[in-house]
């Protein structure tokens, strides 16, 4: 039972990333009808927002201490982070320690602006073009973005540390009534799952309980009718593109301590996230979230040694096998709507 719960936790961890990226993809497709292959790059850029914040907070001033000498007999250089100079050692160290959560303050405006520029500068010209054209141009954009990141940050992964209090593991088994040390799990992965659920809940609450969200949902169902009511639905959909980019960016920010950011991490998640979207049902927000967690859990259980010893390599193909089975039995996916991409 403890092994099952551990794999379930691993699945929820993977599923959190899949669900958030797929949620943003579905928001874009549901509102604009665009198949956005650059969305994985938004996840990657969000992770590098965490790297950037870590570098900014690590900027230091250098002073010479004449009372201490290095091995050459010269005054020792003392590096003091600027935030420590500004706020004192205690608060300064805390700010540096919490650089990843603080990166959210950087990622939100960056991703909103980037999403707006992408939609107004490029995506809007492909609304009425075939989906194949949309895939090609957004895939090309993704490659351009990742090469830009590679140029400025290099090709190697950049370790990004979680706050000290979340760097270790916790005895999760004790919390649910198991014996001590039965289920030890990394604390930050649990934080990531809870954060993902909060973002998913916030997006659904925004769409359901705000006037802006209700108009967007109406526009997703019948864009022409909403436009005839005198509502500038295109402007609202542009904002939703920015919000979708922000969702992917926030997913990347908080994932940085789990998987050291590298320039191709967006592509690594993109294909899987599109499978998630298709399995959940094109245009279905609940379907995207459900499929994300479902496939994450299945992938986790398929990675168990007991399973791989029976079916070698099953962990590499389980998601695609499940997608094939679901699409053969339910061509629209788990919660797909009639008429979406069926014309």
Structure description:
By secondary structure, the chain is mainly alpha-helical. It has one domain: ABC transporter involved in vitamin B12 uptake, BtuC, CATH 1.10.3470. Helices cover 68% and strands 7% of the residues. It has a two-stranded antiparallel ribbon with strand order 1-2. A two-stranded antiparallel sheet has the order 3-4. The longest helix is centred in the N-terminal third of the chain and has 31 residues, at 2-32. The N and C termini lie far apart (47 Å).
Quickly count the helices: 15
How many strand units?
A: 4
Oligomeric state: single chain
Number of domains: 1
Uncertain residue segments = none
The rounded Rg comes to 23 Å
β-strand percent reads 5-15%
How are the strands of the biggest sheet laid out side by side?
A: 1-2
Which shape, going by the Cα principal axes? globular
Average pLDDT over all residues: 85
Give the terminus-to-terminus CA distance.
47 Å
Helix-and-strand structural type? mainly alpha
Q: What percent of the residues sit in helical stretches (DSSP H or I)?
A: 55-70%
CATH class: Mainly Alpha
Succession of helices and strands: HHEEHHHHEHEHHHHHHHH
Largest sheet: 2 strands, antiparallel
**CATH level 3 topology:** ABC transporter involved in vitamin B12 uptake, BtuC
Give the secondary structure arrangement, pairings included:
Blueprint: H1 2-32, H2 39-57, E1 60-69, E2 75-81, H3 82-87, H4 89-97, H5 99-121, H6 131-153, E3 169-171, H7 172-175, E4 184-186, H8 187-209, H9 211-221, H10 223-228, H11 233-255, H12 265-280, H13 285-302, H14 305-310, H15 314-329
Antiparallel strand pairs: 1-2, 3-4
Helix pairs in contact: 1-8, 1-11, 1-12, 1-13, 2-5, 2-6, 2-11, 2-12, 5-11, 8-9, 8-11, 9-11, 12-13, 12-15, 13-15
Membrane topology: Multi-pass membrane protein
Family: Belongs to the binding-protein-dependent transport system permease family. LivHM subfamily.
Pfam families: BPD_transp_2
């Amino acid at each position: 039972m403890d092994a099952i719960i551990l794999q379930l936790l691993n699945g929820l961890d993977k599923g959190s990333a899949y669900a958030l990226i797929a949620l943003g993809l579905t928001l874009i497709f549901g509102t604009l009808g665009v198949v956005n292959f650059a969305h994985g790059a938004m996840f990657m850029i969000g992770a590098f927002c965490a790297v950037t914040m870590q570098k900014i907070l690590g900027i230091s001033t250098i002073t010479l201490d004449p009372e201490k000498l290095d091995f050459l007999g010269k005054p020792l250089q003392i590096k003091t982070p600027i935030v420590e100079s500004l706020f004192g050692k205690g608060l300064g160290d805390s700010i540096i320690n919490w650089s990843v959560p603080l990166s959210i303050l950087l990622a939100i405006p960056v991703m909103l602006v980037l999403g707006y520029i992408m939609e107004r500068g490029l995506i809007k010209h492909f609304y009425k073009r075939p989906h194949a054209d949309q895939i090609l141009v957004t895939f090309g954009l993704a490659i351009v973005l990742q090469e830009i990141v590679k140029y400025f940050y290099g090709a190697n992964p950049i370790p990004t540390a979680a706050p000290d209090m979340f760097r270790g593991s916790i005895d999760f088994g004790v919390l649910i009534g198991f014996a001590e040390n039965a289920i030890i799990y990394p604390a930050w992965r649990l934080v990531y799952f809870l954060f993902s659920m909060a973002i998913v809940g916030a997006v659904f609450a925004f769409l359901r309980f705000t006037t802006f969200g209700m108009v967007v949902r109406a526009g997703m169902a019948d864009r022409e009718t909403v436009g005839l009511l005198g509502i500038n639905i295109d402007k609202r959909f542009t904002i939703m593109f920015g919000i979708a980019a922000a969702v992917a960016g926030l997913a990347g920010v908080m994932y940085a301590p789990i998987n050291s950011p590298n320039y191709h991490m967006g592509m690594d998640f993109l294909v899987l996230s599109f499978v998630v979207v298709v399995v959940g049902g094109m245009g279905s927000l609940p379907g995207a979230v459900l499929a994300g967690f479902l496939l994450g859990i299945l992938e986790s259980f398929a990675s168990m040694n007991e399973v791989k010893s029976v079916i070698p390599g099953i962990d590499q193909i389980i998601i695609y096998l499940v997608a094939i089975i679901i699409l053969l039995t339910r061509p629209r996916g788990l919660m797909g709507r009639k008429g979406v991409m069926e014309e």
